[in-house]
Automatic annotation (TrEMBL):
Family annotation (Gene3D superfamilies): Winged helix-like DNA-binding domain superfamily/Winged helix DNA-binding domain
PROSITE patterns: HTH_ARSR_2
GO biological process entries: response to arsenic-containing substance
Superkingdom to which the source organism belongs: Bacteria
Keywords: Arsenical resistance, DNA-binding, Transcription, Transcription regulation
PANTHER family: ARSENICAL RESISTANCE OPERON REPRESSOR (PTHR33154:SF18), TRANSCRIPTIONAL REGULATOR, ARSR FAMILY (PTHR33154)
UniProt keyword ATP-binding, yes or no: no
The protein's name: Regulatory protein, ArsR
């Protein structure tokens, strides 16, 4: 009897719960591992969100104030867009004292990373429009 957790390496986490009466197998699949292209492109259809993701991809990690300065936009507007990107699992955050830093989610599918890299490579103007 007991609980055993396994990971398949493909984003699926399996929990096996043994009880006296029955064996329960519960599988959780992370939604962002199997992110549908329409959800990804819908999240990045907004210019501000696209530019935030591109800047974060280029810098590795940025806080709201850095993005606000780089994009010359109000902090509440940036925060709202970052919340949307976090909800879709494109970004994750890390708190350090009063600061919240955002980076690309480490378990993003490889196709999504390639799309972002190709977007930056083919359209440098996305970065050039940011504050110099």
């Amino acid at each position: 009897m007991g609980i055993h957790r396994l990971s398949s390496g493909a984003g699926a986490k399996v929990t096996i719960v043994l009880t006296r009466q029955k064996l329960l197998v519960i599988t959780y699949i992370n939604a962002y591992i199997n992110m549908y292209p329409e959800n990804f492109f819908r999240a990045l259809a907004d210019e501000t969100r696209l530019r935030c993701v591109v800047l974060i991809q280029q810098q590795g990690e940025l806080c709201v104030c850095e993005l606000s300065y780089a994009l010359n936009l109000a902090q509440p507007k940036i925060s709202r867009h970052l919340a949307t990107l976090k909800a879709t699992k494109i970004l994750q955050d890390r708190r350090e004292g009063l600061w919240i830093f955002y980076n690309l989610h480490p378990e993003l599918p490889s196709w999504l990373i390639k799309v972002l890299q190709e977007t930056v490579a083919g359209h440098r103007s996305i970065l050039l429009e940011s504050k110099q």
